[in-house]
Amino acid sequence: MGAMGEAALVEFADLTVSYGAVPALAGVSGAFPPGPTGLLGPNGAGKTTLLKTLLGFLRPDRGQLTAFGLDPGRTPLEVRRRIGYMPEVDCHLPGMTAAAFVAFAGELSGLPRDEAISRGHEVLYYVGLGEARYRTVDTYSTGMKQRVKLAQALVHDPDLLLLDEPTNGLDPEGRDEMLGLIRDVSTRRGMSLILCSHLLRDVEQVCESVIVLNQGKVAASGPIAELTGPRRSVYDVRLKGDAAALLTDLKDLGCEWREADDGYRVFLSDGLGPELIFRAARDCGVQVRYLRPGSESLEDVFLRALGHGTGGTAGKETGIETETRTASSERSVARQDRALGE
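Above: the chain's sequence. Below: its structure in C-alpha cell form.
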C-alpha cells in the first residue's frame, strides 16, 4: 500500500475522449495513487473508456494521461508490460488448458517462455486452480473462469492490476473468495490495483481510495475514510405514523433523507442535532420508534456525488448495486444486496 505523499501511479489532466461526436470523458482530471483504488460510476459514466485510454487502446482528443510517468499513446507496450488486466468479459482461447493459456499471457507480457510456464503454474495454484490447471478453460465453471482471468493478469507480476467487474456472475461464496484473493494481492503482495465495479460493497471491502465518474466527469474522489468521515450529522430512523409528512417537513427545514432498510437515513444540516427530528415528529404526530447516530457510507457519498441526495427514489437510475443493513441489532447485522436499477 502506498505511503502518504507517494507519487501517483496514474495521472490524468483535462482528459477528453470521444466516440465520434459523443464525449465519453469530458475534461476529467485526477490520479490513481499506489494501493487499492475503486473506480465507480453508473453505466456510461466513462469508466471503461478511462481504462482503455490507460492501456493505450484509445487516444485522447485533448488533455493527457500518464502511467508510471509514461504516455500510453506513445509507448503502449511499455505501459502494458507493467499492468495486469482482468477484463469483464471472458478472454480465454478456446481449446487451451489453463496452464497453457496463463503461460501464453505471460509470454505476451514479455516473460521468457520457461519463466512464463513456471510463473503460470505458481499463479494458478495461488488462485486455487492448481489441481485443474491441465483442464481446458472451456470446461470451467463461471467462478473458475474468473479465477483464471485473475491468474493471467498476475502472471508477469505487474506494478498495477486493473480489475473490471472481477466478481461478475459469482454466487455469494465465490464472490467472497474472489474478494479475499484481491485483498491478499493488495495487502500481502503489496500490489496496487484499480477495482472497477458496480458493487459498492466490493469496493468498500477492498479499496482505500475511490474515484466516482458521472457523465464523463469526476464527481468525487479521495480516500474513502475521508469521504465518509464526519461531514454531516447522519441518523438512522424508524417511524410510526405519517412518515411522508415528517419527511416533507425535514426537507423544508433543509435536511436530506433517503430510504434505508427498515427505515430512513436522515442527513441534518450543519449545526443541527437529533432534537430537530423529534420536534418535527411531534408537530406531525409521528412517533420516532428508533434513532441511532451514523456516519456517511460509501453509498451515501456515491449518491450525493451523483446529485441523488434527497427523496426515497434517490439513486434508482445509477446502475449501482449497494448493500443496505438493518439497524435492529447491535451484534448481528443482516446483509442484503439491493439493486438500484438501470
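Residues 1-5, 310-317, 323-342 have pLDDT under 50 and may be disordered.
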